[in-house]
Amino acid sequence: MTTHPDQPGSQPDAPATGGVVDVDGPVPGGAFDDHHPPDAALVGDCVHCGFCLPTCPTYVLWGEEMDSPRGRIYLMKEGLEGEPMSDSMVEHWDACLGCMACVTACPSGVQYDTLIEQTRAQVERRHERSRSDRALRRLIFEIFPHPRRLRLLRGPLRALQATGLDRRLRSTGLLDRISPQLAAMEGLAPPLGKPQPLPPHIPATGERRGVVGLLTGCVQGAFFPGVNAATARVLQAEGLDVVVPKAQGCCGALSAHNGREEEAQDYARRLVDTFEGTGVDHVVVNAAGCGSTMKEYAALLADDPAYAERAQHFADRVRDVSEVLDELGPVAVRHPVEATVAYHDACHLSHAQGVRAEPRRLLEAIPGVQLREIAESDLCCGSAGIYNILNPEPARELGDRKARNIVATGADLLVTANPGCLMQVASAIERSGHPMRLMHTVELLDASLSGRGLPVR
């Protein structure tokens, strides 16, 4: 297997991928087994045109053919045709952020999102990672998909932040020397306020226009409880009853995006069970990564006869909060909020779900808001679930690039729709030396509907 290094922005001669997959399934002894290998027909859809290259974060950073979508698809093709899974193959697949910008850009409709998830599930089953990599991944998945465990971390983190020990530890660089990945994890922690628990039922204000369930999430619920509270208030003000099941847990997004197929399926089944029988019209999500996975539950549970149909019914009801609010139209009065706003597209909202216009329309409808677009808006900020922990150096480069583009807008407020993006961009903005306020879309809407305006920093 050879790679083809090139300069960023160039369009090298690509390995031929389109229409040349010689097998219907994986060749025995090759990289993949028979359980949902990368779909040979989807691999054959890639015509190596190169439209994906300028949209791919890792290709933009390194100019390396095998770290582009079409290069990674070529490696999938090799694996299907009998090439054993190698460390080099896995490194290139691991380097993918899963941002899906290539899916938006592809004129041939290549389903790279499906292919990379199929491939990563194979990697997790068939590839032996290093001891340190296994330990780090185990630590991450023992913490982040568990809301209760995350809530237990709040106390120590708040104490560190209140005493300034977190900043002092960061300034020593000690954690960076011990483990850049752990240093990245610590540096991403947002300032923690007080918990804001929600009751199980929040009645609509005025005439009821519908009933929705609210996913409170893992990181969102523990680190950004104000976002959930603002979401509930906005939905309530727009005439929606809000149901908040207390038994809900992780949606499985982090597991699904990282190839932990069985774990993701278990989380999905539990969430389907939790919201069944609640009588909600929609399940509302305010975290882009969660929403994109929940909309794919039918595919995730397609092989489970007890859940396939139920998963489809569930997925059909999942909506990002901006979709619900945009579709309903406003009834609550918008009060002026004087702010120049840069809106950052979360990849799993814009590329994975195709939701771009709705949040912009909601923001533009707030009196006093001036909306400004960010250069290279389709390029990932480097968060990508847990990518910025597993791969801190390229994630930092992408974050700093995003911060420069945000600062260049001259906006005094950045708005986005995903907790991972909020943490990643906040860290990069702080490094840039040009501090600015960051908010979730619903927090700005909540500030307008309440008439209180932006909170004092």
Automatic annotation (TrEMBL):
The keyword Lipoprotein does not apply. Residues 1-10 have a biased composition (Polar residues). The keyword Metal-binding applies. PROSITE patterns: 4FE4S_FER_1 (PS00198), 4FE4S_FER_2 (PS51379). Binds 2 [4Fe-4S] clusters. Residues 13-31 have a biased composition (Low complexity). Keywords: 4Fe-4S, Electron transport, Iron, Iron-sulfur, Metal-binding, Oxidoreductase, Repeat, Transport. Residues 36-66, 86-110 form the 4Fe-4S ferredoxin-type domain. Residues 1-34 are annotated as: Disordered. It catalyses: glycolate + A = glyoxylate + AH2; (R)-lactate + A = pyruvate + AH2. SUPFAM superfamilies: 4Fe-4S ferredoxins, Xylose isomerase-like. GO terms for molecular function: glycolate dehydrogenase activity. Its cofactor is [4Fe-4S] cluster. Its EC number is 1.1.99.14. It comes from the Bacteria. Component of a complex that catalyzes the oxidation of glycolate to glyoxylate. This is Glycolate oxidase iron-sulfur subunit. It comes from Nocardioides aestuarii. The gene is glcF.
